Fold this protein.
Amino acid sequence: MYPKSIFATLCLLAATALSTAEDYPQPLELGSPAPDFTLPGVDGKDWSLSDFSDAELLLVLFTCNHCPTAQYYEERIKDLVTDYREKGVALVAISPNDPDSVRLDELGWAVRSDSFEEMKDQAEERGFNFPYLYDGDTESVSRQYGPLVTPHAFLFDSERKLRYVGAIDDSERIEHVSTHYVRDAIDALLSGKQPDIAQTKVVGCSVKWAGKSHLVEDYMKKLAARPVSVELADAATLAALRANEGSPDQPAKFRLVNFWATWCAPCIAEFDEFVEIDRMYSHREFEFVSVSLNRPDEKDRVLAFLKKKQAANKNYLFASAQRTPLIDAFNPEWQGVAPYTVLINPEGEIVHSEVGTIDPTALKLKIVNELNARNPW
């Protein structure tokens, strides 16, 4: 995975690149009126600036699904709504990202990307208590406000003049927060004063402005060009796969193992999900391994399928037509039913297993939670 310092640097460099590139908008200047908008919300309603006319203050927050920084702030955003709703403060969140400009490897800290449908799922799963609007098709509203990263906050007074723009607070990690920029600005405005700090720099994931889909296409072509192979796995290989011991040169990672076969219809139907999972998380402390239950004389058929699926991860094929010893070598309690999927932690413990078709979202959530519990960025 990216070390913390490298990931933070990438985010900062991305934000700096945006601030210097002529094609990208700059944040709205302090004192500017709030640009009008009409955007679809995840609740099925179209929301406009006028819908918040009764609010004393309006916080327009640009955020998204996939960014780990944005995810860190989700609970704090909900708390802002709860704490200030009765004081006349309204909050609306807008996703500025073009989903077609998000690469799979940028989803390494996420369960889903930034499409409108995925926003609906995110809002429901996380219990959002605020309007969450989509601007990813045209980004016309986002370009008027000019967020550099997600999240990026714009606070307007009763006359809808911009009085604060910047970060929500001074650390994505809540335990390290020392200054609550947005809360301080809200409190000041509610008491008839101007914020002591009216503008701050921001750290987060760069806004995915439209026009970069060709970069995503180039990235997918590189993935498609990676070599695909399959090796025979005997009992010793499968026992080692299950043990997940690693080595001094290659410490153990979280290992997702899927047992499948070309004659297993559910296996074939869901295999693309595993390839996507591998592409999302393999740059972190994670690896995906597939094991085919086909007979060894069917190696060509297995390899042809794997190449069609662009499965450049580690792939194995049962080395013997006598499957029971191989099944027992991996897990004596497994009866050989396919598909069979297990997630093994670096200590060799199975932290998730299921027989039958996976729920891709639930599996991704389990992987992300396990990875983040060990080493968030």
Remarks:
- The radius of gyration is 24 Å.
- The longest helix spans residues 4-20.
